[in-house]
Structure formats: structure tokens, C-alpha cells
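2 proteins. here.
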Amino acid sequence: MFAYYLKLARRSLKRNKVLTALMILTIAIGIGATMTTLTVYRVLSGDPIPAKSDVLYRVQVDSYPKDYEGKDNEPPGDLTRLDAEDLLADGKAFRQTITNGGDSIVELPGGQDVPGRVATRHANSDFFAMFDVPIKAGRAWTKEEDNNKARVTLINHQLAEKKFGDKNPIGQTINIGQQPFQIIGVVGEWKVAPRFYDLASGRFSGEEKVYVPYSTARELNLSYAGNMDCNARIGEGQTSTDRGVKCNWLNYWVELPDAAARDKYMNYLTQYSQQKIAEGWFSRPPNARLRNVMEWLDFKKVVPSDVRLQLWLALGFLLVCMVNVVGLLLAKFLRRSGEIGVRRALGATKSDVFRQFLTESALIGVAGGVLGLVLAWLGLLAVRHQPVDYASLAKFDPLMLITTIVLSVMVTLLAGALPAWRAMRISPSIQLKSQ
């Protein structure tokens, strides 16, 4: 029976090509605009590490001066070097890491290649297990190598291929910031968007190329990138990255496997703050925060307000398109009252008529969805040419392709429900008498 309805729908759509094209174009424009903005919104608001986002927590403690007047009594998002290193030394979490970004000049020793500046990640050994970093070859460094400030490194698979080609890079030496490091591992493809663990170094930037132990980076004073919030005068001969200087600039994350572990760690942070108050390092009452990945992204407002606004505007525009299609379908279906009367007189039921016109609406939806895909692709192409850091991520994936077609059909079925209902209620006797 569906094949028969489909045949009638094709005939009807061919009968008035201009009106059919207008409905398809209306749906396509609405779907194209909606899917463009929805794809961008999904990229920005998605869970970057769904398997662990609820057990990874950003640590905040209040190191602000006593007279600091902050918004909502919020502690700084980053930690001072002293706080980060003391928390790490206590090791109260299941896993923990200090991390910050940087950019260093990387080259093979002996002038074998052209030096280049690349994105660098400084972190502790737990970083790789905490954030599920894929190690393609070799291994991560150990806690012992952390403590010994070992000159070891992991490099990105792209950098390994660029510098060594088909040669195995494990055990080779590479200069980072003019210092020799032994390569002990190669990181596979790892694209985290947004880069939740260090938003300040680029929320949607590309992959980092080099990984160095945090302790080694500090001993060698490798360059850093990110926030630097200093709340006290830096003494003569000191720098903002020195231990004992009240500058907040380090990201600190912990892994806490359950609610009990979270509560226990929160109590520890309160005790730690009380200890630092007693030592004179903190001057405000204990004010610690733990936010998991999605809470942290929401707090930092990773999704720009203009993207949210664009999504609501696109959904509103789609609603306007639906209303227009409802009007066009009403006009189209009610003009065929004579045909409906004949079909009813020959034995067709109201439900038969309803299904026939819904099939016609669905056919319009499929055609509108296909054209909407083209328009959405063009819209995303335009987004990729915008000067924003997330531009390169604005791409369709299989899920969004399916969603586009499904949404288009659902929209037209909803738009066609009222016209189809009105059409099935036409009285055959009145129509036959009028003929």
C-alpha cells in the first residue's frame, strides 16, 4: 500500500512543479541553517572525554589576597606553583597532574634539520593515564623519572614522521629548547575538543607535538603559554614562574573514581587551606572548589554566547519555514477536494487519505533534506573560513548526516499533519454533488 501512496505522491508533486520546488526550497533553507548552527554548537558543547568526564576534577584553592574583591567569591581557576607542587607531593588523589602549555624550538641534534617552534605540553606522569592519551609506541615516563627531572620526552606521531620518517624514533635524541632529550614514546592521534585540561593554551587548537615532564620543564625554565595572574609584587631577582611567587598559572587536575573519593578530597583541600592560612601563605578563609570536566567547561563558558544565539535564531527560522510549508500544503491539499471525494466514494477510508498526504509530505521532506545537506555543507565551509579557533572542527560526521535527513522528514510530517487531517475530513457527498 505504501508503494501506491508513493506513486500518488510523485504524480501530485509533478503536477505543480513550481509549488513543489517552493516547498522543497523552504524546507531546505530552514534545515540548512539549523544544521549548520547545530553542528557548530555540538562541536563546542560536546563532552571531550565522555568515558571519564565525571571522575576528572579541576582543583581550585583561594590564594587571593585578603582585600581581593572577586565575583561570587570565586577562587582563581589556576594554582600557584607552590600550591600545585605541594598538592602533588601530598598525592591524596587516585591520580593527579600539574600541566601547562608551552612552545619550544625543536630540532634534531647536529643541525640535521631545520629548527621549528611547536606546541609543547608539560605534565606529570599521571597525565597520560588520566586523559586517555593514546601511546602509539614506547611508553610514558614514570614517577621516578618525574622526581629525577629526567630529560625524556614523548613526541606526536606527526612530528615523529616529519623528523624521522620510517626510522624508529624510540631511543633517538631530539633537542627541545636547545637541550637534548631522549624520545621514549610516540603519541598517536589525539584530538580533544575543547581542550578542557588547559583552555588558556587554545580551546580548539591542534594537537600538541611534544610532551615533557613538568619537573624537567621547570628546571630548564622552558617557555610556557597561558594565563598568568599575579596578586603580589614579584621580588627582585624573581620571575613569575618561581616557587614562592603568588602568581596563578598552573592547571591542576585530579582523578577521583567515586563520590566518596570526591568528598574525601574536598575535605583534604579544606585542611590544606587551613594549613596554608596558618603558615601565612593564604589570607582568606578556606574556599576550595572541585569541578568535573563538563562543570568546568560550563563555568568557563566555552560555548560562545553568539553561537547559542545563532542556534536559537536558526531554530526560530526553521519554525517560520514550517509555518510557510503548512500554508502551502493546506492550499495544495484542499484544492484536490474533488479527487479526495472520488477516492472516498470508491471506498478509501479517512485514514487512507491521511496516510496518502503524509507520504507526500515525507517525500517533500526527503528532497528538502538532501538539498538542506548541500546548503549545510556550504554553511560549514563558510564557518571554516572564519577567523575563529574552532573553525577547522566545523565538519559533518555520519551522525549529523543522518540527523539532517531525519529532522527534515520530521519537520515536513509535522507540517503536513494539519493539512492531511483537514483533507481527510472532506465530505465525499458534498464534493460529488458539487461536481
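next one coming up
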Amino acid sequence: MKDNFSTQASSYARFRPGYPPQLFDFLFGLCKNFECAWDCATGNGQIAGMLAERFRQVEATDISEKQLQQAVQKKNIRYRIEAAESPSFPDAAFDLITVGQSAHWFHFEKFYPEVRRVLKPGGVLALVGYNLLQIDEPTDAVIKRLYSNVLGEYWDAERRHVDQAYTTIPFPFPETALPEMAMTCEWTFDHLSGYLDTWSALQHYIKKNGRSPLDEAIMAELRSAWPEGVSKTVRFPLFGRISG
């Protein structure tokens, strides 16, 4: 699994959106027991923190020590530096396994056998993610141009799975459809700018070119579409592959 987010771990924790309660209500409704959950590729523990509200124990793993240093801390969450494909957990340990905006990086032929090993009979696997943000027509036009035209060649090949809402990844389990839902936030322009800095393709661009692609022209276009001091509603459509 690639580590594309250690460099911007603090920004990731500060600017990435949080998943809505509606998602967890849906997942918890599928669970038969609430003894132990595994949040795989937890990042800064956004999902782990929500799971800890319901599960007796939450195990959360990631390959990035810097991400885990930014993670949500609760007494019933235990963090470990481990790859998704080689967890150290015992057999039949979990009632729920979650993966948020990370499954597209996995080696599926190694990950899924481990899921089958550590998931309890009747347990739930949830691979969830979110699409490109939606704000309003003028702002969206600039962001889409940045995403596709400026950064297009800098996205890792695995990003195509996100663009296709995970319909292109293998999922060898009986499946339950995820209801339509979205993450919704109220952001200032500075929050948008901070969020864009967390994009892995933007970091790849900086490493190759020695400068940010958020040059004066792009920032001027974004500021023109987003007046100073104005908050806007930002929407991230969710998608997922859910066993059940």
C-alpha cells in the first residue's frame, strides 16, 4: 500500500471532512454485535472515533505513523502501525470492519483473505469513500479543471476506483446497497484551500515541479467565485461497497 499522506498528515487531520451520522446509523443497523470493530487504514481516526461511540473496543491500523500521531484519542481505541494486508489480529475477532477512502490503495488478493479470517460469521465489511466535492457552479468549474486538466497526470492509477465510485474494484461478498447520502460542511475559502493541499496529486505535482499548482491564476479564479468572508456549503457524495 502506498503512503501518500504522511507528508500532509496535520493538514489531513485539520481539513478533511468527517463522515455523517447517517452512515454510522446505517452500518450499525447491519451489525449483530458490538464487541469489537476494526477501522483499517484509519488515517487520523475519523471513523474510529465514531465507532468507539458504539463498540466496546475499536482496533485501528494505518501504515503512516505521522497520521496516527494526529489521530482521535478515546480510551477504547487502540492504534497500531500495520498494513491492511497483514493484520496481527486473531481469527474471528471483529463484528465490523471499516475502510474509509483508502480501499483503492489495497492489494485486494491479499486483503480479502485477511478479512475473511478476522471477521466474525455474520460480520460486516464496509468500504466507503467520497467523490469530488460539490459547492456551486462557478467554484466547481475551477476545481474540476484543477482536478482533471492540471493534476490529471499526477493522480495515481488507483484514483480511477474513486472516480468510478468503487464499482471497478473486486468485492467477493454478498452485498448490501449503501443508501444515497453525502458529507455536508460549511467552509470558508481558507478551509477549501487547506483541503486542496491534502490532495495526493497536488503533492506529487509539487515534488516534480518544485512549486504548487495552486498558482496565482487558479487562486484568483477561485477567489472570484468565492467572495471574502463568505461561508459556503460543501457537499461530498458518498459511495460504498457493503457486505451483508
